[in-house]
Amino acid sequence: MTCDEQKRYSISNQNFSEGAGEVDSSFERSVIEFIKENVKTDRKIDILKQYEVGSYFIDIALVDERTREFILGIEVDGYRYHGGMGYNKYLQDYARQMFIESKGFPIYRIREIDFKINKEGIKKDLEELINN
User: Fold this and answer.
1) Which of 17, 54, 79, 107 has the fewest CB atoms below 10 angstroms from its CB?
2) How far apart are CA 72 and CA 132, in angstroms?
3) What does the alpha-carbon distance between residue 6 and residue 20 come to, in Å, rounded to a whole number?
4) pTM recorded for the entire structure
5) Number of helices (H), then strands (E), in the chain
6) Is the dihedral of CA 38, 53, 29, 10 positive or negative?
7) Per-residue pLDDT tens for 10-31?
8) What is the CA 106 to chain-centroid distance, rounded?
């Protein structure tokens, strides 16, 4: 689905609109809801799920609603998905992130444990990255 098609089917919530698409986990859904309810911005932003970059997908993409400019990609590392996969999974994720960032798409990574214990820090980071 193109960005324009996702926008057409979006659901508005304050300055964030959520585009069509599927989330991969309940943790990913929790992060999206957290962004919509807590992150402050003056920009109108579409939240797109499973945003395609080459042969990879970014879990959550924040895109300017008016200009369609890619603002920030968010990768979520949930325990259920990554739990027990150890070092090799970390290396795969790191290589994928380096490729995506080399194409001009900045990435912010949220680990589930950090989300549980440091939501205020994540909120501050996201606001700084989105608004600057």
Assistant:
1) 54
2) 11
3) 5
4) 0.81
5) 6, 6
6) positive
7) 333 456 666 656 777 889 999 9
8) 10
